[in-house]
Fold Regulatory protein TetR.
Amino acid sequence: MKNKFSDKFGTKERLIEVAERLFAEKGFKGVSVREITSQAKVHLGAINYYFGSKEGLYLEVFQTRFLERAKRLKETFEKNLKDDDPNLEGVIRAFAKAIISGPLTEEEREIHFKLLAREMVRPSSILKLIVEEALNPFLVSFEEALKIYLPSLPPEKMRMAVLSILAQILYFNFARPKVQEVTGQKFDAHFEKFLIEHVVSFSLKGIEGLA
């Protein structure tokens, strides 16, 4: 049987690729070393050789894959800011667009948000890395853009506004199958645009109540 992995991937890369998918589907504790090495078609001792332990492999997945995608999301938001209307509505739209219909492929998006969801529900030591190197830089960038148009909003209300907007968007990403089922809408580009505008209008009304 032909190996399904491209020859351009070496053992280390295959392990990261397979482990990321399995960790996203089953969580860290739900995946064994044997399952990872079996699906990667490598020797059982390869994880210890390249990463020191399963924990080391888990850390590598986040350092090399998760943080790279998070960086692309932030960069897309900042690019969207330049392309959208220079007002409060444009800032919120740029943020929503970056996450809902941004640079990630469908497969990347699914894996990324499954990994994030698992760490939010059952946090490990990796959560600190996610918060400090992925979430905080993105949210600070968003908050600074909002402050231009909401200079008098108190810091505590600003932070709650940022988190509330993020929560809407994360839900639509975590629960895409359920959203499709409830709305009867296919999650295509047209529906993504509809959701983005919904987030914008809903958030603007919420911010009005805070001001």
Observations:
- The chain has two domains: 9-52, 62-210.
- Confidence is low (pLDDT under 50) at residues 1-8.
- The CA atoms of residues 67 and 130 lie 8 Å apart.
- Residues 54-83 form the longest helix (30 residues).
